[in-house]
Amino acid sequence: MIGAYLFKIGSFGVPAMGVCVLVGTVLAVLLSWILRKRTTLDWNDEFVDAIITAVLLGFVGMKLLYWFVTPGVFKTAFQHGFFQGILSLLMEGMVFYGGLIGGIIGIFLVARKKKRNVLEFTDLFAPCFCVAHAFGRVGCLLAGCCYGVQIGETTQFGVLTYKGALAVKYLDGTMRLPVPLMETVFLLVLCEVLVLVFCTEKRLGTTTGWYLIAYAVWRFVIEMFRGDAERGKFGALYTSQWISILILLAGVAVLLLARRFNWKKGKPFKVFREEDLTVPEPDEAAEEAEDAIEIAEAFAEKAEEAEEIAEEAVEEGEEAAEEAAEEAEEIAEEAVEEAEENAEEAVEEAEETVEDATEAANDTITNWVRGTLGE
After folding, report:
1. Model pTM greater than 0.70?
2. Structural domain count of the chain
3. Do 58 and 100 touch, CB atoms closer than 8 A?
């Protein structure tokens, strides 16, 4: 609205967008520091790495998407020299969705390296993104970019525009809808809602899902009230509207998955094994292989011990069987001997009985004969 610079001293100027982005980034980091106690993330290790990676890849994403939707900048950037052109390409023009996608990719890489659930990072960063983005939109308003439709114009789908009560006058004298300021208010309100969700919801992914859904719907609608032409258009929709549809679907998917798998803080994904989420270093892989070999050797030793015990048991069983057979033979022999002895004794007793009976009979006959003859 007042130009690209907050103020200038000679040829040196302080860019409005840069100052607003810096202020928003500082406030976003401060908010994340306040909310950190509700996570299991380590501030000095995991959290700082995620912030640095997200900022760097977010900047790369914003520039790449801007260059993609406005390829004409390469033709005009180098009109005043090579180095001036490089500086112009790096400093001018950004697209938020590119930064969001790049930042999420950076967070995912850190989460994978730290063996963490990526949603534990994104749930914490979602309200912080809103703060940084809100102040970035203030920079857009001050720099005069991302402006709204002019009074009297119609929107993308032919909807009548506003009457001008909230119109802002730009340097070219046009009265336009303050779309950047409207988005700033929306993002600050969304930040408060997301902080409330983050502090009350125990299930991971809920904050992230609602952030993606809410902003995607907002961005799709507000794009219809923008008047800047350098946004890229494919068919009936602008680039950001196509991306909003994809972001909306991603947000719905995150909510459904969070409800289905009930992810908790400090725990890896249930739909993946932890070893599938990380690539072990060569040293770690060698150590794991050595551990596996030691375990296999221990099992082999136990198997040998079990085989020895089984052989001893078989030998003991054979010895016990032999001893039992010998004892049975001895008992049988003793029984036979006793039976023979008993039989001999019975024969002898029978012979003695017969002899006694014979003698008795003889005596009886003799006595009878004597008695008869004598009479």
Report:
1. no
2. 1
3. yes
